[in-house]
């Protein structure tokens, strides 16, 4: 006789969200480390994922590392989220991004108003959703949930 455990749907969602957030920051710090080594940036704050105050200049290697790390992290996480949440990548991508903005505001003690930061975040979110949903559609095409629009 097998042991059956029932988990409430809201607990599953929160558990998946926690896993996605932990995965997001783990990937972010790994990509940030590789970027620092590649671009030879030897001093970068531990709070780099939350830094929206760095001067946006292509001559500033710290800014390049932050920007590239953000974009690569979002894309990779979009693909990895498929393994956790299957076809609900868009939902968790938006939720993780909202949590990232909230954590950034808390860590930096102000709300980010830098347009370059929002542009990077927005383009990263779009790549996360598009890449993740495309992979989910390929992997789960036989059991993908399509809304019924007959009566719409």
Automatic annotation (TrEMBL):
A cellular-component GO term for this protein: membrane
UniProt KW Transmembrane keyword: yes
Membrane topology designation: Multi-pass membrane protein
Segments passing through the bilayer: 12-42, 62-85, 92-111, 117-140
Superkingdom of the source species: Eukaryota
Keyword Nucleus: no
Family annotation (InterPro entries): Integral_membrane_SYS1-rel
Protein location: Membrane
Keyword vocabulary terms for this entry: Membrane, Transmembrane, Transmembrane helix
Residues in the signal sequence: none
UniProt-recorded name of the protein: Transmembrane protein 244 isoform X1
